[in-house]
Amino acid sequence: MKTTISKIGASAGKQVTLGAWLAHKRSSGKIAFLQLRDGTGFIQGVVVKAEVGEELFAQAKNLTQETSLYVTGVVQTDERSPSGYELTVTDFTVISESHDYPITPKEHGTEFLMDHRHVWLRSKRQQAVMKIRDQIINATYEFFHEHDFSKLDSPILTGSSPEGTSELFATKYFDEDAFLSQSGQLYAEAGAMALGRVFTFGPTFRAEKSKTRRHLIEFWMIEPEMAFVEFDENLEWQENYVSHLAASVLKNNQIELKTLGRDLSKLEAIQAPFPRITYDEALAFLHEKGFDDISWGDDFGSPHETAIAEHYEKPVFITHYPTSLKPFYMQPDPNRPEVVLCADLIAPEGYGEIIGGSERIHDYELLKQRISEHNLSEETYAWYLDLRKYGSVPHSGFGLGLERTVAWLSGVEHVRETIPFPRLLNRLYP
Predict the structure, then answer these.
(1) What parts of the sequence cross the membrane (predicted)?
(2) 45 with 73: CB under 8 angstroms?
């Protein structure tokens, strides 16, 4: 019977056949231990010379790393194994031999591993991160569909930007200027006026010349938008969504979290509600901690966010930023127009901002004024203004960066490990 490693427990005591690759092997006299992987998991195959014969045993001892195989054997319960099982091999057939596999058990430099990303993905650690990424994506669809959101596909090629064009990749769209999208938000707002609650999920691009462990040039964003939702309710949606992601990873990725050495208590603490502090309170806190380099109206950098986050076990909302720091579409606080009804959600453990969100301006005249103040073309944003002409309502939304969230929940240091093929400032290969 053909099966996969993830389903092998259903065949305990029975003979099965796996299609697999040889991750590693070791031999001890008359026994060879094959570490097999098939994409769904890892399992040890035990080849006993007395049971398979001299010829097959010699072949097993000479197998090379990443050779592909069909392996037949009997499934045995083994409590020492991460999967709970191992395979007593009775036969195997080589599909394709692997020669001079570049990534060996020895240490390799980061640049070497990134140059070989196409095969580095096969390692146990990288597979664990990709499995957690997949689970977060699955949990995202689960959460939003359970709460009556519709998936909306926003365009990647756009003629305008939600946050100005200084960090966009420009291209030609026949005879017009176009840009690679940095956000699906404006289109999601149109979707929310039609469908009530929507979310976009797709690649976004930032031409930001940054080399920090938190930044990618191409990354994926999840951007919900909700009609009839004001500022405080928007924060509740965010903390419930993030709590759902953490709970889903804890439930479904125990093997992967163990592989990565993740401290599970850190994830268990991620439960709504999350603490909330204003920009003013955050600034006062930073001054108390000796950060004298920042004044009211300045944006917070990574050291500032990390210092604030270290004060909490959970993610923390920083709300009510100065209007001058934020994009044109954010709703000003009616009691204090120099700040806007926005929040950044800062993850603990130094992972920085994972969500930015706000209530959106729903008044036509105010939005028109903001477009002018930001020196944007009213003609370019005419369709966006239209949303305030035909039955405008209070509405809010947010954007979650997938790769930063994967890094945080999995505990890996750099976002380059959280996307299959990272695009970095100096990397477009492979």
Answers:
(1) none
(2) yes
What lies within 8 Å, CB to CB, of 113 at 6+ separation is 103, 120
Furthest-apart CA pair in the chain: how many Å?
Answer: 85
CATH 3.30.930.10 in the chain: give the residue spans: 117-417
What tokens does 119 get? Answer: 């095969």
Name the pairing type of β-strands 276-278 and 336-340: unpaired
Pairing assessment for the beta strands 31-37 and 42-48 based on DSSP bridges: antiparallel
Torsions phi, psi for 75 (to 5 deg): -75, 125
CB-based contact 367:389 (threshold 8 Å): no
CA distance 399 to 204: 11
β-bridge pairing 157-158 and 176-180: antiparallel
Structure token pair of residue 10: 């259903």
Neighbours of 71 (CB within 10 A): 23
Radius of gyration of the chain (CA): 26
User: Quick one: DSSP state of residue 311?
Assistant: T
Give the burial class of 77: count Cβ atoms within 10 A of its Cβ; 0-12 exposed, 13-18 middle, 19 or more buried. exposed
Please tell me the distance from the alpha carbon of residue 245 to that of residue 140, in angstroms, as a whole number: 7
Run of H or E including 85 = strand 85-96
Question: Over the chain (430 residues), what is each successive 10-residue block's mean pLDDT?
Answer: 96 97 94 97 97 96 97 95 93 98 92 98 97 98 98 93 74 93 96 98 93 93 98 98 98 97 98 98 98 96 96 97 97 97 97 97 98 93 97 98 98 97 96
Q: Is the Cβ–Cβ distance between 93 and 70 less than 8 Å?
A: yes
Q: How far apart are CA 275 and CA 194, in angstroms?
A: 33
d(CA 419, CA 220): 9
Decide which of 2.10.25.10, 3.90.25.10, 1.10.10.10, 3.30.930.10 is the CATH code for 117-417: 3.30.930.10
Tell how far CA 74 is from the center of its chain.
38
Distance (Å) of CA 27 to CA 22, 33, 75:
14, 6, 20
Amino acid present at 144: F
> Which tokens belong to 111?
């640049």
